[in-house]
Structure formats: structure tokens, C-alpha cells
Sequence to fold (274 residues):
Amino acid sequence: MRIHADAAASASAKQLKALAYTQGNDIVFANNQYKPDTAEGKKLLAHELTHVVQQNNGASAKIQTRRELDAVTEKEQYAKCLAAIDNVIKKLEANAGKEGMPGDIKEAIKLLRKKFTENKIKCYYLDGIQHGITNFTTGEIYMDVKLLQDTTDVFANIGEGNLLHEGIHALHNEKYPVSTKKYGKALDDKAAGKTSSLSDAETKELQKLKAWTEYWAYRKMREYNNVVYAQGKDEDTIHNETLKRMREEGGIADLNIVWAFDPKWDPRKWKPKN
Fold:
């Protein structure tokens, strides 16, 4: 194990807005935070040593590319993140009652509020690509905490679109529990490096589920904007704009996989079996 408490370490911790953080066997402290002779310093060191053990056991293998903000060393930043999420949900709630708002969007917004109240929306450092993740096993939602440049409380990826996107995934998870739990287990097994025991037919069915929920998560923001801003767009326009946005952001990859083995598959005409 190595302790880093020099100027470079302080700058690194400051960038993450952390009192300290752990990477593998390295513990990095912010300026004047490495104080092993004080009660406060011992508590912080013990906290980080726990992370060292966890990472060596594989429990936090993705600590730097995907990890939850630390409730102890990043308490202030976590509070700012949760406040931002709360404010965005309030915006969604204010627009949910507009005439013509689709019912499933209203359901997703209610579910976001419920999950927020139950502390099931978490603040995470993600991989720099994903804006949010819905855990289909636990039902939790992880939102990315990337900040806009030169700000301390403006989160680049916490907005109406990204929260509603994850809200739709979460709604699907609740409405189709048999299929989504199987999907969640497949994701967990893959992350753990386990060999899949699914048949070819089951694998294809889960791939369709993945493509389907991603399509609708993208699409529902188009539908939301169509109502909020009275855009008057028809079904075909919304569908085509959804596919265009998915191509731009890489989300189309899941649909391309399905189209490779089922060229006529249409996410608008498909639903999970349960």
C-alpha cells in the first residue's frame, strides 16, 4: 500500500473534490488531510483502507471509472448532486400535467420521485460516456456527476432528458420484472466474467429487450419535448428523430445487433413476453 500526500496528490484529490480517494493499493489525500496522529485523520485513513481491501477483493474493480461518490469524503459534492437531481425531477413533475403528455412518461416521472425519496437514485462517477445507468437487478439509478467546466455545482449530465431516460428504463424494469430480472442477471454475470448459460434463443430475446428499452428511453424524451414545446410532430417524425439521435450517440448499436439476426424487427411493435 502506498500513501500519496504531496502537491500532485492534493491536486488530484481536489479535481475529484474528495478529501481522499483510493485506487488499487494507492491512497491519495487532499492537502492537509493525511493526519494519522489525529482522531479525524485516523478515521479518514481507516475509511480509505477499507476501500483498499474491497478493491483487492474485486468488490470495487471499477472504482475509478465507475464508482459512487463517497458519503464521507465527498459528502458536500454528493449533497449538491442530489439537490440537482431533485430540482430536475421538479421540472419534470411541473410538465407532467400538460395536456397530451403520454401516460408512461407520467408514470416514469412518478417513479423517479419515488426512487429519489427511497434513496435509490445515486450519484456516480461513470465512465465518461454514459450519462446514467439503471441497475436492472437492484432497481437503483446511477447518475453521472461530471461537472461543467469551471463550475462546482452544475452537473453536465443531470438534466430532464437523461433523468427521464433512466426513468423509462426503471419503469420497464417494474412493468416486465421476469424479463428484466433475467436481463439484469445476464449483465451481472457478464460483469463478473461468468460464462453465459443462456440458450441462443434466450440470448436473442434479451438482446431485443435491451434494444427495445433503449429505443423507448431515447424516444420518450422526443415525445416529452413534443408536448412541452407544442412541436406538433407526428409519429413518423418522432420515430425518425429518435433513430437519428441514437445514431449520433451510439445507442443504435443495440438495434443493429437485433437487425442483424431479425432484419424486420421493429421496437414499436415488440414487447417483453411478461
Summary: The radius of gyration is 21 Å. The chain has a mean pLDDT of 90. The longest helix spans residues 200-228.
